[in-house]
UniProtKB/TrEMBL annotation, chains A, B:
UniProt keyword annotation of Cell division present: no
Domain Acyl-CoA dehydrogenase/oxidase N-terminal: 33-132
GO biological process, one term: lipid homeostasis
Domain Acyl-CoA oxidase C-alpha1: 282-441
Protein's UniProt name: acyl-CoA oxidase
Record field: compositional bias (Basic residues): 676-689
UniProt domain Acyl-CoA oxidase C-terminal: residue ranges: 530-633
Organism: Brevibacterium luteolum
Amino acid sequence: MSKKHQLSVDPARIGAVLDGRWAEQRYIGRSFIDSEHAVLSETGDLEQLREETLAGVKALIDTGISGLPLPESEGGQNNHAGYVAAFEELVTAEPSIQIKAGVQFGLFAGAIQHLGNAEQHDKWLKPAVRGELLGAFAMTEIGHGSDVASIGTTATYDPSDETFVINTPFRAATKEYLGNAAVHGEAAVVFAQLITNGVNHGVHCFFVPIRDGAAGEPLPGVTPEDDGRKGGLLGIDNGRLSFDNVRVPRTNLLNRYGDVAADGTYSSDIESPGRRFFTMLGTLVQGRVSLDGSGVTAAKLALDIAMRYGLQRRQFTGGDDAVEEVLMDYQQHQRRLMPLVARVFANAVAHDQLLESFQLVFGGEDDSDEARQRLETQAAGFKAITTWDALCTIQECREACGGAGYMWENRLVGLYGDLDVYVTFEGDNTVLLQLVAKRLLSDYAAELKDIDLGGVARYIGTQAAEHSLYRSGLANVGRTIGDIFTPALNNKRVRSGHVQQAMLHNRVEVMVADLAGTLRPAASMPPAKAAEVFNSVQHQLIEAARAYIEALKWEALNDAMHEVQKRSGHDEEAKLLRRIRDLYGLSLIEDNIGWHIMYGRLSMSRARQIGPTIDSLCTKLAANAGDICESFGYGPKHRRATIAEGIEAKRQQEAMDYYRNARAQRDFPVDERHLYKQRKAKEKKAKRG
Amino acid sequence: MSKKHQLSVDPARIGAVLDGRWAEQRYIGRSFIDSEHAVLSETGDLEQLREETLAGVKALIDTGISGLPLPESEGGQNNHAGYVAAFEELVTAEPSIQIKAGVQFGLFAGAIQHLGNAEQHDKWLKPAVRGELLGAFAMTEIGHGSDVASIGTTATYDPSDETFVINTPFRAATKEYLGNAAVHGEAAVVFAQLITNGVNHGVHCFFVPIRDGAAGEPLPGVTPEDDGRKGGLLGIDNGRLSFDNVRVPRTNLLNRYGDVAADGTYSSDIESPGRRFFTMLGTLVQGRVSLDGSGVTAAKLALDIAMRYGLQRRQFTGGDDAVEEVLMDYQQHQRRLMPLVARVFANAVAHDQLLESFQLVFGGEDDSDEARQRLETQAAGFKAITTWDALCTIQECREACGGAGYMWENRLVGLYGDLDVYVTFEGDNTVLLQLVAKRLLSDYAAELKDIDLGGVARYIGTQAAEHSLYRSGLANVGRTIGDIFTPALNNKRVRSGHVQQAMLHNRVEVMVADLAGTLRPAASMPPAKAAEVFNSVQHQLIEAARAYIEALKWEALNDAMHEVQKRSGHDEEAKLLRRIRDLYGLSLIEDNIGWHIMYGRLSMSRARQIGPTIDSLCTKLAANAGDICESFGYGPKHRRATIAEGIEAKRQQEAMDYYRNARAQRDFPVDERHLYKQRKAKEKKAKRG
């Protein structure tokens, strides 16, 4: 590697930026790798993998992680962000263990914690957190994933014996993709339409025993099915559940937001059924928060492997005939990997802000509607971009390692298969970005707040309407920087932070204003026509949301850089972070350069500088690739990739030594190409003479 | 689905365009699915999958496919393109069977056929083609993949017993990733540096027995290792081979391009060692040709599954409260899938042109240097873009199917894992595009032809230098359309074929001219400095190659459209192809819209039309999504995806029937949301009153 651009940084200081405020819990999660149950066998046998994964989840309990989010009164620390931070690091062990633990502690126990009462906590939450009561989270149905409000499962109250009767009225209402459902789950929290006294009160959650003990026989009326093999997460026993007149006591309704009295009278503290529904769902935002951070972990792991290999692997000679170049010195290799490094930094520091929002709300410090809504929007948008980034990053890393990247022993292909589903579960990314977009719109224009456009629009619309206090905060940023677009802008350096900020935010503002202009007339159209108008801008909506989320992530990176700049003696680290921020910002601008030119935000001459500036930033950043790997904080046990641990460098040294020794021997064969060149030169000379 | 834009097309006619000139052999390949050995078990057990795959390869022999490329004198049909077309369709059965067959017939037998003599054909080719002699293709080493000239394995001639001594001098020279090496291979064609009389004559190919019978014990001096689990292609027994003083008779050298006499004298018809090397490698172009077509098959399969599901699956209500919308009606769903449909059409028809080039050269009709070079460039560039497209397409399709897409039973995740390696084997895509770029350069400027820039440049440079007759044909197209860039251009419709053509070609020309300008001075620089200059434009080189290849594919699509337009009574089919061509062309322009504006090829007002025009084309094309699925020519046995065969529509009908019947009952529960709305309206009225 060229040392020309290398900064003298302390990887630990960079690592501290990445690890954020809950670093301590993060390290606990990272150290789980030392457990003998942390890693699954290299086998394709589902039964074996599932048992190993269960053992991993049980081993995890010993770390104390699962108790962190419980209230102090119930033996926990009320530390929600810390729990999530630790949880996210489990990707370094096994995503299967992580997600099975997520199902058990985050979803199953989480639903009991957030939707249940104290008595229910005593009865089910405690054994769930101790891993003594394994459960499934039965929300999604075959027929309805993103549109939870439309699920078909019913829970009809029968006052005669004070029970709810749970039913799967048709095949599409079968609960689907549930971890713990195929084998291990003893119970499930089942989301169903609560019907009492002839009224459907919408989706509520019920505690329903499904098996006679752990991994036992299904209880009467409960039919589990096994989802079998998947694209990854092979250690999780995903399956289906259907219910045929399964009766549970009235007190099995998790009744925090809605209850049914013995006589069948329904009551709720939240009058609006829509608001009640979204409040219940909102308590489950933790899943999205933790997947955002998990995407960061996965991308770091992949880059760690590919960059370490790229710093050793040599291929083709360059200026020097005898020594081949390391891959990381090739411009294209830098161009492939460095923008992904910048993205993972942006995602990591933005995630730390998300964790803070999360702790404020769930720790109880600021449980206001506004705080909850900001949290939900951040979680939805961040999760979408980070998990997509993670997949792209893993794939690019796998390709950057060539054939070696395709070998299971080098980790990347397994990681890809596991992470693949993160982009569609806990909220399909495409739907999540529409949710963000709708909130941007309702923040932008009051009359769009209550617009009922049908379709996905209605789903999102309802949510946004319930969240009238929501503020994206974007408009304010926009106003303060509005005046930066003077004619002089184009003469500023493209690496100026203010220019990047202005361009990224301005793009969001213009996109949102354009969309609002198109959608405003739809508010007074008949539903079918309005839905058509909405559908005609769906793509733009999603792009606007992406632009907004990426602008927020840029802000987080900019904040993190300024934070480091303030510390004395951290100049080189601050410079590295500036390179990362600039690469992130300019890459975003390059991705949409046509837009910036078309809207007059970038002169053509300045636009032409973007590409070469990115090239140069990639080269500079690559000079610290080794430090960046170190800053990720992972060891060989986390990476578990043969090619990342020096074997390649050793082999190449051996080959070089061989040739050096061989050349020194008298009988080392002459290369025919040299003889050919000599002969041709002689012939040429003879001809001339 | 909206019928507004639907064209009345005959899917068979569209299918004929896709299937091309070797449709007959393509159907033979497609019908292999009827063999009882065509599909592997849904298991993760490597041993079982490998045996099933071997059985599949043997079953394949009964179809007669493997004999197609043999000369008529050896019982074949000299039908190289037909063989490849049939082979490509095997992706619909199992990629594992396809690639193991490719190793056996294309690589192992192919090397014997193209590099060996008649006697060697009798001895090894015939049993190889009959599947009685299984073999590995031992070219790649741990230390060298793309840079084949630098492999370390040696074959040193010993006149005392007239043998070659094969050696692996150091660990990095171990042959790696070889199908058939871990278990089934009885022999290997081994690429090694041929050394005789103290001269290294470069890489040659040797027939080397490695096992005592099929799946038998390794022969003395041969050490096989097993690569174990991979990201996909689990049915193939990839492995490593190393050699310790393994002696093979002199006559085991496949001696078509270079031979060694009993006394050790080397001889070759090709004087230049560089040219000889590339001629030998050139005979193996078939692998790249067939992967190009395999990428088409895989992408078609994935789109077939996702579109069939998208036409059934309903989610969220739109204009009508009672009936949910099908996914394919959502703009974003169209925007996700339709550009990929356009790409697979472009890749398919371009591939047919590649097959024609291939048949011309290998059938012997035009075996000129120029034809070979054109073929090699096409194969390299097409393969790179098509295989990347296939991966992106499969992933997008998997996400478009949500959680169902992640289930093994819906095929997409398995297909992704299998196809993943296609982007780095038979030539790493990144290296292949550099090869294309260097040829563009040497065609553009004579002085760049012999430039020695070191590194990858040198590798590519040598190849290009050897190919002085190479003509991309691009400059000619460029000249004829040069005058289209009048000020009036921007007033033409963006869907004009001439405008698309001019923009796509002009971009390539400008990029190549820019690069030539940067690289020209490097020709007179010292090697290290020159290598640095070359490296500084590596990314641009790759982008130029991509632009060139995509322009060629656009031409192929344009040709195919005109072909259909000429046929009477095919108007609707021609219109569909025009939509596809325009969507492909405009998507390419949108991908690089900043470039086109910056270089003054597109006015800003016209540029703003591109996005909405693409939106509209996607919607129009989606109206024929069902016909497009039909045109792919696959049945349920090829797709093997539960969600693609009507089960989803059936479930949704069942759910709709349930609700219709339930609503007709007196005791159907009232929705609380309606009661809430009524109450609110009443309260409002009361307040007013």
